Amino acid sequence: MNYYEQPPINRTEVSHTVKIDNRKDLEITGVKQVDSFDNEEFLLETQMGYLIIRGQNLQLKNLDVHEGLVTIKGKVYELSYVDEHYQEKAKGFFSKLFK
């Protein structure tokens, strides 16, 4: 390898996973940021788009920004992704809702 050649960069993709146990323990990886949350709804920006989690008595149990890991406890009713086309509309809607 000569002086001007760069060694190959080892780029690892951050994966996005959702693990749910008995509809009450939820572990999500690949989270970029938590946009908003309360005891009935979470809005997370993930590697795969915005994820909306709806339920009852939802609690943020763990947030690791460096690893992109979020753990939520509570009764989970719904998980849904916001399509890329509708991301800005959803973000605007939720930001107005949670002001």
Automatic annotation (TrEMBL):
Coiled coil: none annotated. GO terms for biological process: sporulation resulting in formation of a cellular spore. It comes from the Bacteria. It holds the Pfam family YabP. This is Sporulation protein YabP.
